[in-house]
Write a structure and sequence with these properties.
Number of strands: 12
Helix content: 40-55%
Oligomer: single chain
CATH topology of the largest domain: Heat Shock Protein 90
Number of helices: 11
Strand order of the largest sheet: 2-1-5-4-3
Distance between the termini: 68 Å
Length: 340
């Protein structure tokens, strides 16, 4: 469409330009706020209302520190000093406080506002909610940490499996065969502990079968005692339980009850009302990998997070001179998918 001269003149008129800018401010998803050099709010758009929870009537005329957390109050003095020097602050990541008291991460741009004679009289602020970006970064960091953790375990696990296989093999050929079988079984178990977003929906399985399938690559000739009830595990619980048991078995092979110095493990599960209590006990003069009983490593944090988020439960480990006991206190409904 070609703009006529009259159309162009109308758009260039000051009143029309102001209306155009006002429409942009009103329709913006970002919070757009103006304030004076005294930090008093002069304007507050609908985006600011949505982001911070205060209406324009509640915010205009009050100090901008209304939305500052207590530990961020000194930021405003720095902003004002920089504005007086004519500086523009771009994409500063900080925190602000909503009306309900919750904190929200924002990306903030602050620009000086000048009068007709060029004097700086205030500032305009554009604040963007970056909660989703922060969450994405945190998820990425968690995945990278888990990947580093798993890669770091690989050689130790392979060495542990080799030691287990060596106890059973009478020749090099037999050793190669046993190691290959255990690595293939290990790959199968590892796949169970990773979600397949495009795969078919998995079926449930029995608790005993799940534990046995995870232990099979690791146990070798080690003593394994398993005492669990006949309990069907729902599909949603398979991955988190596999992840936790896989982590425990991996550690047991490296320096616990399934290592060369270990005397085996026992696993007992009991149902109490609406809870399933699983105790994994290792007979071995063992200690945490860090050497500190109170140290909480990534593997433990991962187990705690998995059990808490997916199974409405708690995960803990206790060390003694004779070994280690890991306890899983789980919501029975989350494990079975049935109402108790």
């Amino acid at each position: 469409m070609t703009m006529t001269q009259s159309d162009s003149s109308e758009l260039e008129a000051p009143e029309s330009l102001q209306q155009h800018l006002a429409a942009i401010v009103e329709g913006s998803d970002d919070a757009i706020i103006t304030k004076g050099l005294d930090s008093i709010i002069r304007s507050w758009n609908p985006g600011a209302e949505r982001l911070f929870g205060y209406s324009a009537e509640e915010a205009v005329g009050r100090s901008i520190t209304l939305i500052f957390p207590d530990d961020r109050m000194d930021e405003e003095a720095g902003f004002i000093a920089r504005l007086r020097r004519g500086e523009r602050i771009s994409n500063l990541e900080t925190l602000r406080k909503r009306k309900d008291g919750t904190l929200v991460p924002i990306s903030l741009t602050v620009s000086p506002v000048r009068s007709a004679n060029g004097k700086i009289v205030g500032a305009s602020k554009i604040a963007r909610d970056i909660t989703l970006q922060r969450q994405a970064i945190e998820r990425q960091q968690l995945l990278l940490s888990e990947m580093r953790h798993r890669v770091g375990n690989s050689l130790a696990v392979a060495g542990g499996l080799l030691s287990i296989a060596a106890r059973q093999a009478d020749s090099v050929q037999e050793l190669v065969k046993v190691v290959r079988q255990r690595l293939l079984a290990l790959a199968s178990v590892h796949a169970r502990a990773v979600d397949d977003p495009v795969g078919a929906r998995p079926e449930g399985t029995a608790l005993e079968k799940l534990i046995n399938s995870i232990l099979e690559p690791f146990s070798g000739g080690a003593s394994v005692s398993l005492d669990v009830p006949e309990l069907h595990i729902c599909p949603a619980a398979i991955t988190p339980l596999s992840l936790v048991f896989f982590e425990l078995a991996t550690n047991a092979v490296k320096y616990g009850g399934l290592s060369e110095a270990g005397d085996g493990i026992s696993i007992r599960a009991d149902m109490h009302d609406d809870r399933l209590i699983v105790r994994w006990t290792e007979d071995c003069t063992t200690k945490p990998a860090s050497g500190e009983p109170d140290h909480v490593g990534f593997g433990t944090r991962m187990c705690q997070s998995t059990v808490g988020a997916s199974l409405a439960g708690k995960f803990s480990r206790d060390f003694s001179p004779n070994g280690m006991t890991a306890t899983l206190d789980l919501d029975l409904r989350a494990v079975t998918g049935l109402q108790t």
